[in-house]
Specification:
Elements lengths: L1 E5 L2 H18 L4 E4 L3 H15 L9 E4 L1 E3 L10 H8 L11 E2 L8 H14 L5 E4 L21 E4 L2 H7 L12 E4 L2 H5 L3 E6 L5 H9 L18 E6 H4 L2
Parallel strand pairs: 1-10, 2-3, 2-6, 3-5, 6-9, 9-10
Antiparallel strand pairs: 4-8, 7-8
Bound molecules: 2-amino-2-deoxy-6-O-phosphono-alpha-D-glucopyranose.
């Protein structure tokens, strides 16, 4: 595991953007695994800037998102589809039909979740996976629990996550209680993984993760120790005691 500690959020975003742009340049047909949330906004902003300056081309890129709230469609301003469209896809030359995000309105969730993993496999798998981390150590929406799902599945969000994510909704009650999330196996199958975190509210989760000597379903991020190419990019606010 490689650890990069930057001064602040901008530094973290800059380093992540540089890696992502280099990966796309090296492989113009890249399959990106993307994450939503405040952490990735600065990264996506820099990717848009680079695209506008003619530095990066998305015409042959495909993307797969980690998760989506059940019950929200892409027109809902708090849906992850809406987030991705407004924070990235609408501003770059990616073919929207090749941007895959779990469908929060899918009818048969059991079949749908299975199909999502198959789709990723069929399209060649994920080359570069971007991850954030929840304050409780979750990645995607894989929540701390006795057991965590291997494959993409329906997950019940914890009170902690519902509260954390309520800032993206008008009220706490509006936050969906369930989501579709990629499973740990899908994430670990990516060729390369970048985990990003910024701000002192992530300090506990990141320190628990960096200090872990064991893998625990109560700290889903700890499963990343099973992967051979993980770069963790954080800022000083996360790292400092
Ligand atoms: C959300 C998402 C995760 C994200 C994490 C951190 O619940 N499902 O994919 O990485 O929480 O979000 P933020 O970057 O807003 O702190």
């Amino acid at each position: 595991m490689k650890l990069i500690v930057e001064k602040d959020y901008d530094g973290m975003s800059e380093v992540a953007a540089k890696i992502m742009i280099d990966e796309i340049k090296n492989n113009p047909n890249i399959n990106l695994g993307l994450a939503t949330g405040s952490t990735t906004k600065g990264l996506y902003k820099r990717i848009i800037d680079a695209h506008e300056r003619g530095k990066v081309d998305f015409s042959n890129v495909k993307s797969f998102n980690l998760d989506e709230y059940i019950g929200l469609d892409g027109t809902h301003p708090s849906s992850y589809r809406y987030f991705m469209d407004t924070n990235l896809f609408n501003h770059i030359n990616i073919n929207k039909n090749k941007t895959y995000i779990p469908d929060g309105k899918a009818k048969n969730l059991e079949t749908y979740t299975k199909d999502y993993d198959e789709l990723i496999e069929k399209k060649g798998g994920i080359d570069l996976q971007i991850l954030g981390i929840g304050t409780n150590g979750h990645i995607a929406f894989i929540e701390p629990s006795d057991e965590i799902a291997i494959d993409t599945s329906v997950v019940k969000l914890t009170e902690n996550t519902i509260k954390d994510n309520s800032r993206f909704f008008n009220t706490l009650d509006e936050v969906p209680k369930t989501a579709i999330s990629m499973g740990i196996s899908g994430i670990l199958k990516a060729e390369k993984i970048i985990l990003m975190a910024s701000g002192k509210h992530k300090r506990e989760a990141i320190n628990n993760f960096l200090k872990s000597e064991k893998i625990s379903t109560y700290l889903p991020a700890s499963f990343l120790y099973l992967h051979r190419d993980v770069t963790v990019i954080i800022d000083e606010a996360v790292y400092k005691e």
